[in-house]
């Protein structure tokens, strides 16, 4: 019995050590699994964030260029009309900011300085006096990045942003319809020979052009609202990304302790 008692105590101690070892291993496995899962989710979140940031940058680049094109079209279609007041603001915007976004400028610097010094009334007279028909032509309007984001339901855009982008797309669709009407009535002015009907066709062509000019202003207003919202969201996303990157680095360092 004296020889048996130490063996029992050693066995009990060994069992306690084994339970402690198993408990430590189990806790380590659970903690390692949780940290590994968190690290995986953070990696996926970072990948999706990089993809979303790339989509946002592409969209902003397309819309920024589109803003210049629409502003130029609005100015061009305001030549020869009685009241080009709406185009005066975009005329000044183009001279100050729009032309600097292009890789080249159609106006020399001395001409820009001269035009920038004109008053609003002088710009109105400049636009109203030019009636060149070559200024009343346009091309098909394409926004492939915007179309892909709305059709593919790209993640990373808030509900308000999707709503603004959808509104912008509908405005662009209605603008394209005005282009189709102008082209249709423009061709009819060369084919309709009856004087009465020809006068009707010309009037319809002019009305379609007025609608196109008015729709250009609407699209520009929506477009600039979208750009402001995207800039604001990008600023908030950059601030949030810094915090998440710090947390990811902290998790990675802890995972290294359990390897």
Architecture overview:
The protein is an all-alpha fold. Helices cover 82% and strands 0% of the residues. The protein contains seven helices and no strands. The chain has helices at residues 4-76, 85-101, 109-116, 120-129, 144-152, 159-191, 195-257. Helix 1 packs across helix 2 (85-101) and helix 6 runs antiparallel to helix 7.
The biggest beta sheet reads:
none
Radius of gyration, in Å, reads: 33 Å
* Beta-strand residue percentage: under 5%
What is the number of helices? 7
Low-confidence stretches: none
Shape: elongated
- Cα end-to-end separation: 46 Å
Helix content: over 70%
Strand and helix order: HHHHHHH
Oligomer category: single chain
DSSP, total strands: 0
Defining key terms:
259 residues; mainly alpha; 82% helix; elongated
